[in-house]
Design brief:
This protein is an alpha+beta fold. It is built from 13 helices and 15 strands. The strands form six sheets. A five-stranded mixed sheet has the order 10-11-9-14-15, with helices on both faces. Strands 1-2 form a two-stranded antiparallel ribbon. Helix 5 (about 140-160) runs antiparallel to helix 6 (about 170-195) and helix 10 (about 310-325) packs antiparallel against helix 11. The radius of gyration is 37 Å and the shape is rod-shaped. The N and C termini lie far apart (about 115 Å).
Length: about 425
């Protein structure tokens, strides 16, 4: 029998295939940016969107194929073809959902997806229930299988690559969707090219699902699923951007509230919180720690001679040296002015004294600030937990008193609180 094509419906089938490809790529992209339980939902959504899109494209192409007899479709086989499309899409997208994509997994996923697309197509064709049965040209039948495999291979590779942050991702995604859509539609039409209907053939399911009824179902289902899927993906992207902005805003607020604006060190509030946690840990584990109160000697002279701007630069450099001297588990904080606190976690008195000496050494090294060579020293007072205080207030106050004792005795010196009171 001589068959013809309805060109507008052929164009629509290509557009549906491209839209389905775009939607599945968009949803697959979300898999890598979502927690595991959410990623599974995106995988399910992408599978349904791609499967329904491929199935819809197939049956739109079938409706574009005009035979000179009335055509109907077997309902169970039509539904089976839809399930095959969704399941093969699910396996395919799952294969590219990992962190990497070895060649074996890519080829395996492409094979199963290609087989799924072809099986969906020829199951849909068999739903026509022609008598005598449809005969297939070997060359075009084989060509359709090759196109299905190559299309699946390219589609999965593109889906994996587009999960990453690449330049011009929107343009690349559009081009990738077009390539995928054209490939999927080409497989369908090469399969249709392979089909031969004998003269005098009749459709045994002409009273089953009619083309008019199927057209309505395909259009409603495909448009609804693809539109909802695409909308969800777009909304998720916008929500992710909003969440990112909120996170950055909270980080900025946290920086303002808990960190010194000049040096970037923790401020008094954050120091008190950390010290409180350290006290609880030390009490629970019967450990000791030290609080070192550091004050610069001669800082006022620097401000008077060189101006407050140079004084600020000096404080920034001192903060860098302090932070680079203490251990990773310790905390350096700025209380204000030229006063700094170092909380030395889990240490002996000897270790606290050794760290104090290192701090004094690094502070007194010359500073080159805006063509000025600045020399300052420091005085450090040490309070030791739990002997010199068992709460934040007492430790800070006693370390402060020890610092003044060190400053009174000699510049560039340190003193323990207990030594000061002896």
């Amino acid at each position: 029998m001589l068959a013809t094509y309805d060109l507008p419906l052929v164009i629509v089938s290509f557009l549906v295939a491209i839209l389905a490809s775009y939607t599945s790529l968009k949803m697959t992209e979300r898999i890598s940016f979502s927690p595991a339980h959410i990623a599974q939902l995106w995988l399910l959504g992408g599978s349904i969107a791609m499967g329904v899109g491929i199935w819809a494209m197939h049956f739109i192409g079938m409706m574009a194929y005009r035979l000179p007899i009335d055509i109907g479709y077997d309902m169970p086989l039509t539904i089976l073809s839809l399930l095959i499309a969704v399941l093969s899409s699910s396996f395919a997208l799952w294969s590219v959902s990992g962190r990497d994509l070895p060649l074996f997994r890519l080829l395996n996923g492409a094979l199963w997806m290609g087989v799924g697309i072809a099986l969906m197509h020829y199951t849909g064709m068999s739903a026509m229930s022609m008598s005598p049965g449809i005969e297939y040209d070997t060359f075009w039948f084989s060509t359709s299988l090759v196109i299905a495999f190559v299309t699946a291979l390219v589609s999965l590779w593109l889906a994996f690559k587009l999960r990453k942050n690449i330049p011009n991702v929107k343009l690349v995604r559009f081009l990738a969707s077009t390539i995928m859509g054209v490939g999927i539609a080409s497989m369908h039409y090469s399969g249709m090219k392979a089909a031969h209907f004998a003269k005098g053939s009749i459709c045994l399911t002409v009273n089953g699902v009619t083309q008019e009824w199927l057209a309505v179902v395909v259009i409603i289902i495909s448009c609804a699923v693809l539109s909802i899927a695409l909308l969800m993906a777009l909304l998720d992207v916008k929500f992710a951007r909003y969440t990112r902005k909120m996170y950055l805003a909270n980080q900025d607020l946290r920086q303002l509230v808990l960190y010194d604006h000049l040096t970037g060190l923790p401020n008094r509030s954050l120091l008190a919180d950390r010290m409180g946690q350290t006290i609880l840990k030390a009490h629970r584990n019967h450990q000791n720690f030290a609080v070192l109160y550091l004050d610069l000697d001669g800082f006022k002279k620097v401000n008077n001679l060189h101006g407050y701007h140079v004084g600020d630069l000096l404080l920034i450099e001192v903060a860098k040296r302090l932070g680079g001297t203490i251990r990773v588990q310790d905390t350096a904080a700025r209380l204000g002015g030229d006063e700094f606190i170092m909380m030395i976690d889990t240490c002996t008195r000897r270790e606290a004294a050794f760290i104090a000496e290192k701090l004094l050494d690094v502070v007194e090294q010359a500073y080159e600030l805006e063509e000025h060579v600045i020399m300052v020293s420091a005085s450090i007072g040490i309070a030791y937990y739990p002997d010199d205080g068992q709460d934040v207030h007492m430790l800070m106050m006693n370390a402060d008193m020890a610092m003044y004792a060190a400053k009174h005795d000699s510049s560039n010196a340190y003193a323990f609180y207990e030594v000061m009171t002896a």
